[in-house]
Amino acid sequence: MNNTFNGGAISDQVVNQQWRIIGPSSAQWSDIKEIFTQLYIVENRKLKDVREILSKSHGFNASEKMFKRRIFDWKIRKNYKAKDKEIIAKKVKACVSSGQDLHSLSFQGRPVKLDRVKRHYRTDKRFSRLLETLSHSPEEDDITIDEPPIKEDSPSTATGTLCPWRYSASNSDQDEMSLQYDNDPSNVTITRHLSPPTDFYAVESTLFHTRDAIRWHFTSFKPLKVKELVLRFPRTVSEEVRTGRIDQASEFWLSLYHGLHHIESGNSMHAWKAFDKCCQMVQPLLMSAPLHLLSCVLLHFATSWQGLNELEHHLLDFISSMASSVVGSEHPLALAFGMIATADIRDLVVESIMDLVTQGYKSRRKLDNSSLFALRVDQIDMLRKRKKFPQALTLCQQLVKDSQTMRKKRYRTALATLGRIFADQGEEYGVESVAHRILDNEASDMANANSGGTTAWACEQLGSLSLNRGEYVVAEAYLRRAVEMTVQRYPNRGPSMVSLTERLATCLQLQGKRTNTGTLRGNGQLSTGF
């Protein structure tokens, strides 16, 4: 009897174990992941509704516990963290400032849940002003706030009505309170006049001025052409700009890039030459491409220069003062530069301002417009510099896709942008793959072979990777090519010519070859000896 019972118990255990393992396979879960994410995250459906849809439409059956386990494994999260809400708040403010539809906002690849953001606004009075805007959203008609309209150029005040008291308040360190009595002594009016927090007010003002500067740029601004720049600024317009091999904004970008690189490498003489060149280009840029100058500033000063605060402030102050001198101290562009330079809010506004500029171009220019393409690259590089890799990767993948219908040179630039994201994350194989794709595309584009810095960047990356792996012959070939293109003055967003020649010299020394890094032949090759 006991044996039978034990045998029955064992059989029941086997049956239970078999029942537990019944369910979709890993491959089936992988196949359904994208559809599940679309229903659960993007369309914001409840889990029970998603299960029903997948069961009826796709024949996919799994328990709620199985789904929750997969949600945990896939790291899918519906709720916002406090930090996420702060980020979304900035995006909402930028969207409101630019006059865009709030319901077109997205965060981490999915639409923003404005109802959850509104709850955050209710608990954080810094965003009381945005709450008034969001209260008119059709998503929640039950939210009503009795507040008078607030002017954009004045400190905001939040008011509410509580019977029999009329009360006006918002957070402030110092407030002024006054009491007013009507004919009825029981009805007392308490009015408090307050100013918003300093940092939020500064951010608000900066975005407001930026929006006006963008509107000015596309309505009344008349940019100077290259010929006019050459006539007015003969000493600051280089031969590359005159011949169209590079535009003024890109040259300014590269000068700042290499100047900072020289400072970090200890080459102060080369650094000061680069920064001096940048300062000379500020005035021509204000008259030819002011929004691109703004994007360059946002990109290079997106993060603070560690140990170089004085130099950083000096450069920003110079750009701000030059903007005031060229367009006027009360011009919105000058005010935006001034706020970026003087207020300690750059970390709070750089992403929103860059998004405003990019969206301004997107709404007024075709997708293949060169200025728009350059701004999209700058926006990705800025996010990469701030270590916002998921957002940068999402934008870059779309840029690579869009660039496939443009000129091949644009496609190589988009690939190089993707490669820099991989490089910053230490993904060597990703960098290597992208670099080879650039060289393959360049080989098939005979009309523009070696026409830009992306090829030099690809050769420099492949040379450095080969050097680290001990493949000195291969490394020498790639580094020589990178040096030759840099000597021929092809712009390169990678190391400067000095760094490249030093790296090539190291490669040659490891092979037992002698070289003089200071001697360059007329054809751009580094002279070497044995």
TrEMBL record:
<feature type="region of interest" description="Disordered">
    <location>
        <begin position="138"/>
        <end position="158"/>
    </location>
</feature>
<feature type="domain" description="Clr5">
    <location>
        <begin position="26"/>
        <end position="78"/>
    </location>
</feature>
<dbReference type="InterPro" id="IPR025676">
    <property type="entry name" value="Clr5_dom"/>
</dbReference>
<dbReference type="Pfam" id="PF14420">
    <property type="entry name" value="Clr5"/>
</dbReference>
<protein>
    <recommendedName>
        <fullName>Clr5 domain-containing protein</fullName>
    </recommendedName>
</protein>
<dbReference type="InterPro" id="IPR011990">
    <property type="entry name" value="TPR-like_helical_dom_sf"/>
</dbReference>
